[in-house]
Amino acid sequence: MSSSSARPAAEHLDVLVVGAGISGIGAARYLKTELPGKSFAILEARPASGGTWDLFRYPGIRSDSDLHTFGYAFKPWRDRQSLADAPRILAYLRQTAAENGIEEHIRYHHKVLGASWSTGEARWTVEVERADTGERTTLTCGWLFSAGGYYRYDEGFTPHFEGRDRFHGPVVHPQHWPEDLDHAGKRVVVIGSGATAVTLVPAMAGTAAHVTMLQRTPTYVVPVPRSDLVANALKKCLGARRGYALTRRKNIAQQRLIWRFCQRFPKAARRLIRWVNTRQLPAGYPVDVHFNPPYDPWDQRLCAVPDGDLFRTIREGRASVVTDRIATFTERGLLLESGRELAADVIVTATGLNVQAFGGIRLTVDGREVKLPDTLAYKGMMLSGVPNFAFAIGYTNSSWTLKIGLLCEHFCRLLAHMDAHGHTVCRPEPADPGMATRPFLDFGAGYVRRAVDTLPRQGDRMPWLTSMDYRDDVRLLRSGSVADPELRFSRATVGEEAAGRPVG
């Protein structure tokens, strides 16, 4: 074949980051500052950055983690709101991208379909589809960094509801909120009891005739101040950067203390939360019916409500909670298993997410497909047997971004270590293939339980344990060495596979 008719070589980058949400923007900033010589791009399937905070448009959407820990360590959160709404968070993320020159690295409408690793070439070949045109192309990279979160962006989870088609009004999932939905003066039923439901109820109650939260199982709901008075005072006295840093340390310690208290003294934690709920609700309210989960605190994530807004709408009679099961949808609402009928003009199915690891990207290594349940998570950021692949999964018991920052720091130190020693391939391999394992996300939430068999697993010892403790991760990811006997480095040349060798 003549040179004029040969296929052009695919564009090659040192690192490809998949996803331009809070994790991807953070990863890009660390790459730019810690490894300025590395070439990279962010591939984003959607037409805008921001991930979750651009995708979800339902009323009242906000973070249930304080932004002093949910925000980046390197960029102070300057807003007075600590539990902030989505527009403020989105503005913060896009400002971060603009200030750090990241926007020019984002390629929108680029959906990653699959990636194949060649040990001989020490590179990934990544298949990309242009979401706007359907055109397909390929890129190659030395490292693939998955920052796409843990759920499907194209569909939420909705269980089967008997008779759903009979209902005459709109049935809406929060992940696909229609811009023209008008609920003013209407009776709304929100099905669910998680973070989305407890956000929607007070937000819609402002204009709806009445909002009912219909739950099958209660959730722990805790009022939290929308604004952190201590944080605002520290920023005023010490300046934005120092005040933010001190608030961040305070809140990290506070989160850890609450979680450890709930784990060590679950009965006491349950009693304390019940006492708080009783004080927030009207006298004689059946707290043990509607706010008494059958599990211990932090077996699932606690739901934070800013300034107790959910409880306030219940006190004012604008919202109510019903604990029951749905027998069937009817033309005018819902028939419950107890025989009670709930009239509704609008029904919202706040029934959760569909968990999807790494955006559903199909991975192959030297021609063999990677089956995620057969892999183990190394330091909560890489997969056994999968070279030059890293991912960003944050905390389930604390602010997501706290772990993302540590992972990105460690990732940059790992790449610098490889450059310093002339390595091009890095592959985690457990020394004991028969090591006992457990689910990667050891968490009781329904969306996790539904997907647990499709996810990687974790081991019973470091570095194969996935830590959910910030202090432990500081020691492991920030202070600990990147070299490890179970992390095998090698140098590969085109057409020749180099034998892996442990580096201690």
TrEMBL record:
What InterPro entries does its record include?
Answer: FAD-binding_MO, FAD/NAD-bd_sf, FAD/NAD-binding_dom
Coiled coil ranges (UniProt) are: none
| Keywords recorded for this protein, A-Z | FAD, Flavoprotein, Monooxygenase, NADP, Oxidoreductase
Q: Please indicate which superkingdom the organism of origin belongs to.
A: Bacteria
An example Gene Ontology molecular-function term = monooxygenase activity
Look up the record and name the cofactor or cofactors this protein needs: FAD
User: FAD/NAD(P)-binding domain: from which residue to which, for each copy?
Assistant: 14-221
Instruction: Indicate the family of this protein.
Output: Belongs to the FAD-binding monooxygenase family.
Under what name is this protein listed? Flavin-binding monooxygenase
| Species this chain originates from | Streptomyces termitum
Q: What is the lineage of its organism?
A: Bacteria, Bacillati, Actinomycetota, Actinomycetes, Kitasatosporales
